Amino acid sequence: MYRFLLSRQWVILTLLALVLIPTMIELGFWQLHRHERRVALNQVIAHSLAVEPVPAESLTSPGAKVEHEHLYRRVTARGSFDTADEVVVRRRTNADDEVGYHVLTPFVLEDGKILLVNRGWVPADGPSQSAFPEIPAPPEGEITVTGRLMQDQTTEDSGIKNLEGLPDRQIMLINSELEAQRLGKEVLGGYVELTEPEPSGDTPEQIAAPVHDEIGPHMAYAVQWWLFTAGVPIGWVILVRREARERAEQAEAGSANTEETEPSAV
Length: 266
Known about the structure:
The chain is α/β, with parallel strands linked by helices. The protein contains four helices and eight strands; from the N terminus they run H-E-E-E-E-E-E-H-E-H-E-H.
């Protein structure tokens, strides 16, 4: 009755079902892990923003990697901005999804080390993004800054290619190791998103605090993939039973037609 399962069509369909089941199970766990990572990150962000600021050099040092548990931690530093070595980070958007730059200004600490400070977003000077944009100057002299500690940006983590041959004073990624090579100085690992002091004008537009009360759709996607997984064998059984039923009906119809056409005995 089920010999049709050995046909080429049904062998291919069965193999496809056997491949889809583990694949969709794995996709479900992938979404589950993304959900778990988001929940864990939300906890880190909530804690980092709630506690009092600490000195930046207590959490990072030249050549060091900012630990995950210190991500978005509020830090302070005292020193002065060095606008002579200021650069802009290409292809960054603001809250309104307008494309422009992030302003990266070295902050010279009292001990001579450099803390990279992302002062915020400025609009592009023309569609080509080749000219250096107009940037309001930061406060002069020795000041104290406060900001959120961030990890170095890499191509692997961000998906942004670190292009070469860019216009003067423009970069693609904020990376303390690359900036240390460019500046020829000791640069603390990671960088800081500036929150204080606030700019005196409209720009640079400070980067908004990260959202940490949303978990995203990943859990729902995981459940969907697992429901699809359950649907594959159920669908396969339904198709097999329908095929068997249709073949049985065709066989009965063929048998009836044969009986009708046979000559009657004299």
